Amino acid sequence: MLAVGKVKPPYADDVAHYERLLRKQARVDVIEVADDDAIARRIPERAYVSLLDDRGEAYDSEAFARWLEQRRQAGLDVCFVLGGAYGIELERSDHRLSLGPMTLPHQLARVVLLEQLFRAHKILAGEPYHH
User: Residue 48's beta-bridge partner residues?
Assistant: First the structure.
């Protein structure tokens, strides 16, 4: 995951919590960059780029898990890109993901995405995920 800006309280504790939980399920690297210009330089060359965008595709948790599994089966590392307070446009993205029609603070969007990644991995492992 590439994100503009350093996560701050009150979101920092939640981000750390989901990063810890995800370590048991999958490898998730969260890379923070200073500004939009640094994003493009940090996207791995062979990554499948999913840009968070309120105009993107929205999924329920089960559909998101299936989408993630399709990427994994194709051997693709997904790089989720989160812009700063004003969003971001990229020259290249393979997919646009919406967390819903409401506008969220960009740091809260990071927490929601990490929670949904954790939930997706629980679903894929056949483990309970409602708690």
Answer: 78
Write the pLDDT tens digit of every residue in 71-124: 999 998 999 999 988 889 898 899 999 999 998 999 999 999 999 999 999 999
- For domain 2-123, the question of CATH label 3.40.1280.10 is answered with yes
In degrees, to the nearest 5, what angle opens at C-alpha 117 toward C-alphas 72 and 64? 65
Taking each helix axis as running N to C, give the angle between helix 11-23 and helix 106-124, from 0 to 180 degrees, rounded to the nearest 10. Answer: 20
What is 15-64 written as a DSSP string?
A: HHHHHHHHHTT-----EEESSHHHHHHHS-TT-EEEEEEEEEE---HHHH
pTM: 0.93
Strand 95-97 versus strand 78-82 pairing type? unpaired
Domains of the chain, residue spans: 2-123
